[in-house]
Amino acid sequence: MGVIDSRVVNIDELKLEHFSAVGGKFESDAVRIGPLVGAKDLGYSYDVVQPGKTSCPFHSHRGEEEMFLILEGEGELRFGRRTTHLRNETGNPTLRLRSFQVGSGRIHHR
Hints:
The protein is mainly beta. It has one helix at about 5; strands at about 15-20, 25-30, 45-50, 65-70, 75-80, 80-90, 100.
């Protein structure tokens, strides 16, 4: 196995861990991908959030950037006081991306 092969992950082969907090208010099945591909500063995760659930509470990052890519379905992204609807109705990875710079201090996520 070469260096490139050891840095490749296939979504269908990931082992997701169930996360639940605050009596199920925040819930998802997820895995942190960054460490699997050798990333040091990229906060890269794969999360499956069921309809009607919220992945995590409002938060901000000081040490990593964050980006969202909707592979299937739809959701809401809260950023400060704004809410943006993100969706992928086709089932194909449509690039509707939003990134957050390190230390922006802006609270986000849903």
